[in-house]
Amino acid sequence: DVKVTQSSRYLVKRTGEKVFLECVQDMDHENMFWYRQDPGLGLRLIYFSYDVKMKEKGDIPEGYSVSREKKERFSLILESASTNQTSMYLCASRPTGKGSYNEQFFGPGTRLTVL
Amino acid sequence: GQQLNQSPQSMFIQEGEDVSMNCTSSSIFNTWLWYKQDPGEGPVLLIALYKAGELTSNGRLTAQFGITRKDSFLNISASIPSDVGIYFCAGPPNFGNEKLTFGTGTRLTIIP
């Protein structure tokens, strides 16, 4: 079974702090994604990566950066957290190629609160 | 970025009732996916649709790929308590694109 794990289920930070959210997948997937989930807005893509050290902006990259130094790990960074970044953050991964076309496997999510 | 519009936004039903929800887009999709998110968990894929007009079932769930390619429907028959959660439609906005666009979600609650 594919397993995607996220470093924390719940996180509380203060405005201005630097925040790291970690995601690890164990299935050697090339592609990894970070989303935020807000009520009534669904899932919105922040950044994704299709290979080590490669990244592309999603729909809402402002205020975020990412790092992918190893294939299995994709980190989301909030350089200076703000209250409007309070949200549920979901990481996902998927392989490239046939068999699971566009199926993304999700982690359990990190609920971040910025005070 | 583009979003998919789901309807209804929330549903309150009694156990045993059938459920219908839909997803619409202003542009054509070549693949439609339906995900379910249980409370406190990440979304899990339920059904994938690859061809216009396709009707696919997974147990009590049935999904259809609209003929116009701009919509999709999900039906759940004889709902049970474990059906509670948020249902999302999703699809790649461009053919072959690795990204997915997700719908706004339909929250299903079962009234005891």
Summarize the topology.
The complex is a heterodimer of chains A (115) and B (112).
Chain A: E1 4-6, E2 10-13, E3 19-25, E4 31-38, E5 42-49, E6 56-57, E7 65-70, E8 73-78, E9 87-94, E10 105-106, E11 110-114
Parallel strand pairs in A: 2-11
Antiparallel strand pairs in A: 1-3, 3-8, 4-5, 4-9, 5-6, 7-8, 9-10, 9-11
Chain B: E1 5-7, E2 10-14, E3 19-24, E4 32-37, E5 43-49, E6 55-58, E7 61-65, E8 71-76, E9 85-91, E10 101-102, E11 106-111
Parallel strand pairs in B: 2-11
Antiparallel strand pairs in B: 1-3, 3-8, 4-5, 4-9, 6-7, 7-8, 9-10, 9-11
The fraction of residues assigned to DSSP E strands of chain B is over 45%
Work out the helix count of chain B. 0
Distance between the termini of chain A: 37 Å
* Low-confidence regions of chain A: none
Characterise the protein shown here:
The complex is a heterodimer of chains A (115) and B (112). Chain A has no helices and eleven strands. In chain A, 0% of the residues lie in helices and 51% in strands. The termini of chain A are far apart. The relative contact order of chain A is 0.33. Chain A has 115 residues and is mainly beta. In chain A, strands 2, 4, 5, 6, 9, 10 and 11 form a seven-stranded mixed beta sheet that branches. Chain A has a four-stranded antiparallel beta sheet with strand order 1-3-8-7, with no helix packed on it. Chain B is mainly β. Helix content of chain B is 0%, strand content 51%. Chain B contains no helices and eleven strands. In chain B, strands 2, 4, 5, 9, 10 and 11 form a six-stranded mixed beta sheet that branches. Chain B is globular and about 40 Å long. The model of chain B has no long low-confidence stretch (mean pLDDT 91). The interface between A and B is medium-sized, with 27 and 26 residues.
